[in-house]
Write a structure and sequence with these properties.
Elements (H helix, E strand, L loop, with lengths): L1 H31 L2 H47 L1 H6 L3 H50 L7 H43 L24 E8 L9 E8 L10
Antiparallel strand pairs: 1-2
Helix pairs in contact: 1-5, 2-4, 2-5, 4-5
Amino acid sequence: MCYLDTLFPVLSDQFFKVGGLLVAYTVIIAIVFPFFTLALILIIAIYYFPYKLSEGGINETKRLDNMTKSPLLSHLATSIQGSSTIKAYKMEKKFQLKFSKLQDRNSVALFLFGMSLQWASEKFDLISLLIVLVTFIFPAALPKEMITPSMTALSLTYAITVCDMVQSVVRQAVQSEAMFKSAKRILNYINDLESEAPGSIEHRRPPTGWPEEGRIVFHEVNVRYREGLPLVLKNISFEVKPQEKIGIVG
């Protein structure tokens, strides 16, 4: 939830701010230096290729990070809540080993996610460097009559500024899209997971005055904590008669 509550709003704010500045610079460039507008379109097209190339890897590693983080946090919460029971049965070592295993799995996914972002960032940096280099070499190779020093300086300034802005916008777009994996996981919990039965089922309500006597019957009952986990109670059958006192151990 921290991604959607804290990081995503910050990234979105930066994305729209830098995107707005990029649009403003584009308008200024189109008015003052129209030929650079064509170069700007080429710059955006060049940045789009590594963006699409890295999109799948970043999204997939982020999905793995989310999937491996949930069991880790669940195990941590369970260990804290049941710490007294764990100590009573001397199971500290077992829970520590399980925590280390879950943490290692999450660390691998988180490392891959960070490396995917770093790979994309390095490609964006390399493209920016090449664009600025070409912008610097091209005016220097032209005769002085074709381009003035002031236009050369202006083109270099805009090349550096626009490349930095486009790079920032693309990087924030990649990170924001990765953050949406958290939203997708939340929607999965809301829409796809089966909910528990309602607290009261109208067509199965007991008669008025129930129970008439304190009698409980279990017949071949099987219980598990949730779907997919092993059974904790298997074929349990017993009867508690009215006014009978019993003790449950375990």
